[in-house]
Amino acid sequence: MKAQLRPGAREAIFAQLIEAGRAEQVARRLTDAIILGVLTPGERLPSEQELARRFGVALITVREGLVILRDAGLVETRRGRGGGSFVIKADAPHDTLLQARLRGLAQVELSDLAVYFSTIAEGCAERAALRASAAEAERLDAWLLHADFSTTAAARTNAGGFYLELAVLSQSARLVREQIRLQAEFGPLLFLGLGDPDTRALITGLNGRIALAITRGDGQAARTLAADQVRLLGEWLLTMKARIERGGYRDDAIVADA
């Protein structure tokens, strides 16, 4: 059984835009949703009228945003009965592109991005532990139970899903938006470490411990565990960056079992 993101995550994706009127914002919000797995391949998007209502923008703005998504190969629009805009099964981010991006970032910049990501993740985890109801904590446990971390591709998708779940449980719309934005920007790089089976096992174990801390209402433990998790991923990324720069590590070895 595939783990499904809860309704709160979907509501966050379709929340009204802060600055209405820009097609790029519509496209970015929907792109983030596709990257994070909130919108799945083959899924039909809400109608253009419904998207305009939810985002608080003009209908023409939604249409322009969908044009951007079609040009990017993320959605297709079908006419006639049963038509609409549908999510296309997009290829995972090309590993050589990610590796090139890794080469292009200085170690200090990677470290700073990891610190920023950790700060947001820690805050989400702590607030989730302090604000989540018993029922919400149980739903998080159920989500983790069905989430697949057995392969690199599945682990990358579900790692992002887990962080988004924590953001939703924080009950802060701003934290949710920032987590989505940051995952879209840095997640594909940070989650490269999940290609290493040992790192993946450690991250998966920490997921369970974070969920347990949330069930117990232990905000400090949830915060510390989230920090440990991002630290592990960040350290792996910096190690790979250093090895690549020394020429002692093959680029294609970054990804193990996609």
Automatic annotation (TrEMBL):
PROSITE patterns: HTH_GNTR. GO terms for molecular function: DNA binding; DNA-binding transcription factor activity. Keywords: DNA-binding, Transcription, Transcription regulation. Residues 20-90 form the HTH gntR-type domain. Gene3D superfamilies: GntR ligand-binding domain-like, Winged helix-like DNA-binding domain superfamily/Winged helix DNA-binding domain. The keyword Transcription regulation applies. CDD domains: WHTH_GntR. The keyword DNA-binding applies. This is GntR family transcriptional regulator. It comes from the Bacteria.
